[in-house]
Design goal:
Blueprint lengths: L1 H13 L22 E6 L5 E6 L6 E5 L10 E2 L4 E3 L3 E8 L9 E5 L8 E5 L17 E3 L1 E2 L8 E3 L16 E3 L5 E9 L2 E4 L1 E3 L9 E8 L6 E9 L2 H4 L6 E6 L20 E8 L4 E8 L10 E8 L2 E6 L5 E5 L1 H4 L10 E9 L15 E11 L2
Parallel strand pairs: 11-14
Antiparallel strand pairs: 1-2, 2-5, 3-4, 3-6, 6-7, 8-25, 9-15, 10-11, 12-13, 13-14, 13-25, 15-24, 16-21, 16-25, 17-18, 17-24, 18-19, 19-20, 21-22, 22-23
């Protein structure tokens, strides 16, 4: 009886065309990535700076700000960002070898009135000497020709002792009256140093009104700028990340004015948007050059950023001189894709302004009284 049972069992096992050499259990259960965690820091007047993190190795965080369910095609988290309006944040983490995490959800209801100051760097300095910019806010691009445009300067970080940088003469410093100076120096021959400050990886924002009060150098070859780039530049590169130039100025051979167009006493700045790809590039530039305007005097340069629209102004938010929308400049339009970070820099030379010459005044001094962000 036992033998018959064994034989029958053997025959049954062989009927599938091969011997079953061992039992097979269910496939191993796949773990989910840990859900993101959220921390907040106080900004101003009820606004917060939100940071997201995840404990799963190699995890990428994706999030939405409109209460919709996040997916791996949603905004990717790169840096802390400002929250100054009522919203629902939802986030997930995705990591190789893991299922997507459960959803982190957080409601924000700061109920902040329009036009309220929600973030700023006033470049305060209560000491008796010059100080470096706040390292909790500003980082630096560094090196020679680090950033395109065939510029001639070496960008120096705070305290850098790598030649030609000189820690005894920093290229970015705040004086005792609370003014940030970004200084372009000629060290020897055609060797120049300057600074390019940025909030990349530290602070960013999506929508609002941003402005800086500034006094600009005007010599040939000087190229001061106040601008923004998308946080996603590390994954989609430029110009797909989007670039918003709140203020650019040159005073050289490549002036945007046609021959004979610039009457005596006229000066100018430009506001621009750039986006898209090398095959389909979005560009829009508008200059501001009223009679008697001088960039050597103090002016406030600002941008009003709302969904589907960018506006640039000088001195007063009511004094809008340029408006850009997807309809006016075409697609692609990257400026609703996520937060951007702030850049302040003084370039020397390059494709647009041309090189310094015998008339160029050194050191060049880009002065910044403050950078402020308000609610729309």
């Amino acid at each position: 009886m036992f033998a018959v049972i064994v034989l029958a069992s053997t025959l049954m096992c062989g009927c599938g065309g091969g011997m079953n050499t061992g039992s097979q259990g269910p496939p191993p259960e796949q773990n989910a990535a840990a859900p993101p965690t959220l921390t907040t820091a106080t900004a101003q007047n009820g606004a917060s700076i939100v940071s997201l993190s995840d404990s799963t190795s190699g995890a990428t965080i994706y999030y939405t700000l409109d209460g919709t369910a996040p997916t791996t095609t949603s905004m990717q988290y790169f840096a802390p960002f400002l929250v100054s309006s009522n919203m629902t944040l939802k986030a997930i983490a995705s990591a190789p070898g893991y299922l997507n995490s459960t959803v982190l959800s957080k409601d924000f209801a700061p109920n902040i009135a329009s036009g309220t100051l929600v973030w700023s760097d006033e470049f305060a300095n209560s000491s008796s000497g010059n100080v470096l910019p706040d390292a909790k806010v500003w980082t630096y691009d560094t090196g020679f020709q680090c950033c395109g445009n065939n510029e001639l300067e070496t960008y120096c970080a705070a305290g850098s002792a790598t030649a030609p940088c000189d820690p005894a003469n920093p290229n970015a410093q705040i004086d005792t009256s609370g003014i940030l100076h970004i200084i372009g120096r000629k060290t020897t021959g055609t060797t120049y140093t300057s600074a390019r400050l940025k909030t990349q990886g530290v602070f960013s924002f999506l929508y609002g009104r941003v402005e800086a009060r500034m006094k600009l150098p005007e010599s040939q070859g000087m190229w001061p700028a106040f601008w923004l780039l998308g946080n996603n530049i590390t994954t989609v590169s430029w110009p797909a990340c989007g670039e918003l130039d709140v203020m650019e100025h040159i005073n050289g051979s490549n002036s945007p004015f046609s021959v004979g167009e610039k009457p005596p006493g006229y000066d100018w700045v430009a506001g621009s948007v750039h986006g898209g790809s090398t095959s389909k590039h979005l560009d829009g530039t508008q200059r501001y050059n009223p009679s008697g305007f001088s960039t050597a005097a103090w002016h406030t340069y600002g941008m009003i950023w709302t969904k589907g629209q960018i506006q640039f102004y000088v001195d007063d938010p009511q004094n809008v001189y340029a408006t850009f929308t997807p309809a006016s400049v075409g697609n692609p339009w990257p400026f609703d894709a996520g937060p951007q970070f702030i850049i302040l820099n003084l370039a020397i030379g390059g494709d647009w302004p041309g090189s310094p010459d015998a008339t160029t005044v050194f050191p060049g001094d880009l002065q910044v009284d403050y950078v402020r962000i308000y609610t729309n």
